[in-house]
Amino acid sequence: MTAPAGRGFVRTVLGDVEPDALGVTYAHEHLIVDSPLIEDRFAHIHLSSVEAAVAEVGECAAVGVSAMVDAMPCAAGRDVVRLAQISRGTGVHVLAATGLHTARYYPGRAWVVEEPADVLAELFRADIEDGIDRYDYGGPVVRRTEHRAGIVKVATIGERLSDAERRVFEAAAAVHRTTGVPILTHCEDGLGAVEQLELFRDLGVPLDRVALSHTDKRPDPAYHRELLSTGATLEYDQALRQPAGEPKGTAWLVAEMVAAGFGDRIVLGTDGARRTLWRTLGGAPGLAWLAAGFVGVLASLGVDEAARRRLFVENPSRVLTFRR
Ligand SMILES: [Zn+2]
């Protein structure tokens, strides 16, 4: 399934769709996070059940959500076959990621640390164009599925990028150049965003093709204005973790940035890799709350309906479109 050429397309695990087809989109989700390492060391984010995900995503669909980005990149607990099952089971578009996460996900995986940018870029390209490995680059055998990656995700820790991180960014820039894939980044504790954008600019990536995640962990309006002024998109995803009425919470920050004229550069997600956030696993408030409850908080802060539509529909559709 391939969308007509010319207007660009969004690549979901079940095929390419027109950007307009996405509708209300959650831009940074975690529907499956499953590997022996995750189970042993990060049990609080261990999400292995298609059934649970279908139930949780189904609650989101019931309140109007029609697309989600799964932000787990290569070899860190991703499972594209299960993502496709979740998409089929709910009717919600799901985008899968290629790329690499922070170093803590890869103990004992020498290739992640040692291979040069061009080798990583080829692994990312194959995920995007040929299909994601059903073994998630666990090696030695690679079996490409029919499910392709719709974003490349890269990550840094702190404000000084390591050589290993730079190498992964070089690979992402290279695969962006050849495929037009959108770029999503992880900013640990909300930091490092300025440095990430400087590096992408040096690598020749147009910054309007880049979305930076978790920056609402640092709700300093000056920091956000600096980032948004570059043309990059910010993905805010801390709302589900904040108590109601949090004075400098994500809703407040959204309202500030919309008022400052940056309402076309923000997308929203749950970063829901916490079992305690999933209603169907006994947690709260449930992933559906972002579309069902948070919008009401935004409205109460003066973010009007047209602005909310940009955050949830128009901005993600633009940011997630393949463009060279
Ligand atoms: Zn995440």
- Tell me the number of structural domains: 1
Largest sheet: 8 strands, parallel
Record field, number of beta strands: 10
- Which fold does the CATH topology refer to? TIM Barrel
Could you spell the SSE succession in H and E letters?
EEEHHEHEHHEHEHEHEHEHH
The percentage of residues in β strands lies in: 15-25%
Hetero compounds: zinc ion
Supply database-style keywords.
single chain; 324 residues; alpha/beta; TIM Barrel; two-stranded antiparallel sheet; binds zinc ion
Task: Characterise this structure.
This protein is α/β, with parallel strands linked by helices. It has one domain: TIM Barrel. It is 37% helix and 15% strand. It has eleven helices and ten strands. Strands 3-4-5-6-7-8-9-10 form an eight-stranded parallel sheet. α8 links the parallel β8 and β9 (233-236). Residues 28, 30, 71, 271, 273 line the site of zinc ion.
Walk me through the topology.
Elements: E1 10-12, E2 15-17, E3 24-29, H1 36-41, H2 50-62, E4 65-70, H3 80-90, E5 93-99, H4 110-114, H5 117-129, E6 149-156, H6 163-179, E7 183-187, H7 193-202, E8 210-213, H8 221-228, E9 233-236, H9 250-259, E10 266-268, H10 289-300, H11 305-319
Parallel strand pairs: 3-4, 4-5, 5-6, 6-7, 7-8, 8-9, 9-10
Antiparallel strand pairs: 1-2
Helix pairs in contact: 2-3, 5-6
